[in-house]
């Protein structure tokens, strides 16, 4: 024993024993994506709900096709289709109560429409006559967010504010697989968990971020596993199984509403179309891959279940398609009208009161437009 | 009229008081940021707020500036009025995307249906001997972003009045606090009902006839000192404190320049692409026939902010301001 050791006073007291802050096991996602359709559990699903989901998905598919067609006719500037992802889009809307809030990304106009937003107003951003066409407060749908993952902290803040006010409101925020690499994804999940905010994060893992496959995006076992690092549960679900997605989201919403905190849900799905109408997917993926997913199409899965159980026949399917046609025809007709534009809108909403500088610029454009008018007479 | 006792107070105290009064009056006002709760902020500007209003109203957040501002956006969407503290100028940069892509645009994006009444407080500027990343003048970035108001006080009463106005504003306000003036003192009665200063009005801090020094924030006291020193040279300088960079008060600035016929813009921010270029252009466009000389700029150098031992060479000081005044072509006219 050295002199120093004999003196004893130099011996540091050991720090308190380290303890994990919670048991990580219950937070871990299941090893397989959760499925209902095609399993025994499907028998327990309410036939009314199955039919409703089917009708919504058929309508959603038709909506996607119509919107893509509108890009070809020059009626939409661009359209990021959610074809093949309709189960997630519809379930996100149906999992929420009226008082809840939805935070969609650019790909999620269908979720907004399924929640009640007028499709023409939902498409305003993509038509290009304004940015957000709908009043976010009307259906409690935040503006479509284009900068990836930036809407996630908004959802957390809103859910936190609702809780501070004593309202049992839940926010559901949507993001893509690529968006999970953004810093805002990390910050939002961390804030949500620290604050135990009543928020549900729905990641639609559709395999691609434009051209980049998931393997180049992350080395995590699954995106749902990321939840564990924040101290919230991660759930993995088959994103083309509408019943499963709705069940998982409804559970997560209920958990959030009753003070259980946030949940991260990863839905495994597939982007059947190119990133947008302007993208050429043949540059980064083969047809075989796309074909492989056709047999796992969300509408097909539901129809198999419904027809197999005798809950839906050809007439029923036709009726759903007819309803979707009517919806698409009305949308087409309205989108074929030129939108009315007021250039003064450019200046009128930058601030509550335009600055003196904006007043001057407004006057300048007014004079230019008047001169244009006179010139054309 | 009862006389009110004027007490000396620091700018930091006036800012604290502004938040305290706003929180007491309006339960939707929430303060949030790094170390703002228990500690009262690294500059102690939020001192006592968590104690008085509880941690739900004055919240220590996780360390993530984008997350702080991003969650503030969501809180504002739900009807709260967040007052966000960024710990230092250079540490506000992670929040830049939220600021530019959402905070500044949400009102416009939604045609006025979703205004965001958020105040982003940022201690800025140098002169405190701060090591790297603690002394930036980042106002030009914010000025270049439509949808934001950009405000900066130079006096103790203005710190109170302008911060009250910023918090009360239904638009987002970037509230730049000149950190080297935090401990500046002024007589001011905090218990006197204060008038909230309107955002967007400059003020003449010192009247003069020879030339106008156009300045703001940390450079205001420097310009006032320069104006005193200039008397020895026979110049009677007017000093305009902008207080608000956006909206910009062309009226007050131009009225002054038309009177004096000469102008120098003074700020710590670099001159290339800095606020002075915009101000000089505006003054020239509006007051050309009244000008006896080109509008000059005295600004920080176009270098990354210097280390503390060199910052005195960088910061616009009295001598550099007087040198600029001397170059205003006096021989030609007067
Ligand atoms: C911050 C940011 N960086 C880049 C882009 C351009 N961009 C638009 S969509 C996209 C891919 C996003 O992929 P993912 O998150 O998987 O969503 P998906 O499009 O598949 O629905 C990219 C890179 C963007 N919108 N925002
Ligand atoms: Mg994707």
Describe the fold and architecture.
The complex is a heterodimer of chains A (377) and B (334). By secondary structure, chain A is α/β, with parallel strands linked by helices. Chain A has 2 domains: 26-335, 3-Layer(aba) Sandwich (Rossmann fold); 345-376. Chain A is 46% helix and 8% strand. Chain A has helices at 3-7, 47-72, 86-94, 109-114, 119-122, 124-127, 136-139, 151-165, 183-195, 226-230, 242-257, 287-294, 298-308, 314-335, 345-348, 356-376, and strands spanning 101-103, 171-176, 199-205, 208-209, 212-213, 234-238, 263-268. In chain A, β2 (171-176), α9 and β3 (199-205) form a beta-alpha-beta unit. In chain A, α3 (86-94) packs parallel to α11 (242-257). In chain B, the strands form 3 sheets. In chain B, strands 3-2-4-5-7-6-12 form a 7-stranded mixed beta sheet, sandwiched between helices. In chain B, strands 9-11-10-13-14 form a 5-stranded mixed beta sheet, sandwiched between helices. In chain B, α3 (65-77) packs parallel to α4. The termini of chain B are far apart. By secondary structure, chain B is an alpha/beta fold. In chain B, α8 links the parallel β10 (211-215) and β11 (237-241). The model of chain B has no long low-confidence stretch (mean pLDDT 95). Chain B is built from 12 helices and 14 strands. Chain B has 2 domains: 7-195, Rossmann fold, CATH 3.40.50; 203-332, Rossmann fold (3-Layer(aba) Sandwich), CATH 3.40.50. The longest helix of chain B is centred in the first third of the chain and has 15 residues, at 11-25.
The shape of chain A is: globular
Average pLDDT metric of chain B: 95
Order of helices and strands of chain B: EHEHEHEHHEHEHEEEEHEEHEHEHH
Helix content of chain A: 40-55%
Supply the number of helical segments of chain B.
12
Total strand segments of chain A? 7
The percent range for strand residues of chain A is 5-15%
Q: Show unreliable segments of chain A.
A: none
In CATH, the topology of the largest domain in chain B is named Rossmann fold
Task: Report, as a whole number of angstroms, the end-to-end distance of chain A.
Answer: 106 Å
Biggest sheet features of chain A: 5 strands, parallel
Task: Give the topology string of chain A: H per helix, E per strand.
Answer: HHHEHHHHHEHEEEHEHEHHHHH
Name the average pLDDT of chain A.
Answer: 96
CATH H-level superfamily title of the largest domain in chain B: Thiamin diphosphate (ThDP)-binding fold, Pyr/PP domains
Enzyme class (chain B): oxidoreductase
EC number (chain B): 1.2.4.4
Keywords (chain B): Oxidoreductase
Organism (chain B): Streptomyces longwoodensis
